[in-house]
Specification:
Elements: H1 6-22, H2 32-49, H3 55-68, H4 74-84, H5 89-105
Helix pairs in contact: 1-3, 1-5, 2-3, 2-4, 4-5
């Protein structure tokens, strides 16, 4: 059964935009494959929870957002996204916000 949780995915988009304004950093030790795998797993879960989420667009935005993370926060943000991909639909929104804050501010 699909649950709509557009608020959480909207927050991910807003946080992604905010992080992009902080300034881009090159990946430091985080490989393209790891970023793609984490974003793909997260976006598969997001799309299964919300019919309005386009999986390919989500993956692209996720990868761009991770690229905009501060280099020393990328791995933790990806770890957080990996956890989010295993969460139930009701928990994905709060998990996603946590990953975004980790990426943007190291929280």
């Amino acid at each position: 059964m699909k649950t709509r949780n557009g608020f959480g995915f909207l927050m991910f988009g807003i946080l992604g935009f905010a992080m992009s304004q902080i300034g881009a950093c090159e990946r430091d030790g985080t490989g393209d494959l790891r970023v793609h795998q984490s974003c793909k797993a997260y976006c598969q879960q997001a799309a299964s929870c919300d019919d309005d989420v386009d999986e390919d667009d989500c993956i692209s935005r996720c990868e761009n957002t991770v690229d905009d993370c501060m280099a020393d926060e990328q791995e933790q943000a990806l770890d957080d996204l990996d956890v989010c991909s295993d969460e139930t639909c009701d928990e994905v929104a709060s998990c996603t916000i946590g990953a975004g804050l980790q990426c943007a501010f190291g929280l």
